[in-house]
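ok so heres the complex, two chains, lmk if somethin looks off
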Amino acid sequence: MSLLVVGSVALDSVETPFDKVEAALGGSATYISLAASYFSAPVELVGVVGDDFPKQYTEMLERHNVDLEGLQIIKGEKTFRWGGKYHYDLNVRDTLFTELNAFENFNPVLPDRYKKSRYICLGNIDPILQMRVLEQVSDPQFVVCDTMNLWINLMKLDLLKLLKKVHVFILNDSEARMLTEEPNLIKAAKLIRQMGPEILIIKKGEHGAMLFTNDTIFSAPAYPMEIIFDPTGAGDSFAGGFTGYLHKTRDLSPENIKRAVIYGSTMASFCVEKFSTKGLEDLSYLQIQDRFREFRKISSFNETD
Amino acid sequence: MSLLVVGSVALDSVETPFDKVEAALGGSATYISLAASYFSAPVELVGVVGDDFPKQYTEMLERHNVDLEGLQIIKGEKTFRWGGKYHYDLNVRDTLFTELNAFENFNPVLPDRYKKSRYICLGNIDPILQMRVLEQVSDPQFVVCDTMNLWINLMKLDLLKLLKKVHVFILNDSEARMLTEEPNLIKAAKLIRQMGPEILIIKKGEHGAMLFTNDTIFSAPAYPMEIIFDPTGAGDSFAGGFTGYLHKTRDLSPENIKRAVIYGSTMASFCVEKFSTKGLEDLSYLQIQDRFREFRKISSFNETD
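and the predicted structre for the whole thing:
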């Protein structure tokens, strides 16, 4: 049974204090699929691009066993483009432009065999589209959903409707506060879990991530990095690593979900080490496990020697 | 050998969204001594108050085996007073007033037996005063130093001079960025350690704390709290729990320093559960150990089951 991923596929122009790239591969579905591909194969991608989408990118995704039957290529249209600039303090980002192009009229249609997927990762796109994908799946068993501030602002009701069908909801700390209008994150987490998702993950960037379940609060550290080359896609890579690991292990015990959070954090840390998707293109499973162990080293302590 | 603590002793008027208090016990030396008193006895306090300082407060400190021979009581002067207001988002605080009073001409003079102390916690006060205390100690073995944004802004050169004589420096994330003008915390930590302190702790409030030593980065979670009644003194309580535990155990191994960070976080979490010093007045060592274990539960994960 494959892992189904929906989200954006984009060409990103990104500027950071270190470098800049033009029309590099990006988009939530791209990052999620690549990060998940190290755990699950194949990953079924649902998305849309224009006929300007470079062949080298489809080839790279296929090399990672990403199934692209669900990637619509719209003739005469251009691929979704996003331009952003990060400042010296990488927590601050300006969107320079957003050209929806082929994405504007995206109507996700799942190839028949995708409909049998049990594990689904709804990457960050309009919650109506996320719902439309979910409705085509015959028996969704484990649904992970990511979002962003834009949808909380503009489409809160659609998002709330979707949350009732979601098992794991992932968002960042400012989004959690925005969604609940509650400054205390622990209270905000409680309120969000009442909206539907049994499992909630709040991403906190350089401060790591927190996992909330019925009986667990788990605090995962961030990987300590002196240089972050390009923060784009970190959250998507987290979602991909998290979902991919759970899809691989099929173990939804609290202990294994904690491990999935660390694998998500691991993939996010690799993502930001290079521009665009480069940090996720050439990893070995050994590298991933080594970094997982580094996360343990950073956060473990004992009561006595 | 006792633990020597210097800092402010104050009467605080604090308002939060939950309640308000007038002229309640506060000050960095007070919180540090109380938090440390659960690990080390006696704690030798160096500070100054006016003759308006309520007897009930000296009695309470003495009940916790805090040695007050080093607490100067200035006749005809009033005790240092601070007034602050916390907003709904408790990360934001306004100082309403600061009356230095007896503190204005504070000249710390150590009673002779204090001079033999080996473990010293320099609580947050003017770095010139911190230095003046340190210079009176005959053979300081382990010096912990806390500070605040005010001294980084106004007395950076004095602070830098002091840092060369300090083994552990504690400050918060925004202060670390301010001191180094470096937004990346991992880089900032490296720069600060080059200023002198072998061990650096960066407090991150609701995001926990980070420990940096020569070969260790350790990320400690915050205790998840739905209601923080009064954040005043949390950082001081951290310093007190941290130093007190190390003074008690006399073990400066990396593993034990990590534990000290968790004991510091534990004392900070008790501090903010009640107004003023109330959260630190009636604890049992069993309660402290239980919470220490909760920190383990929050942050531990294994590679396999």
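quick notes: DSSP finds ten helices and 14 strands in chain A. thats all i got rn
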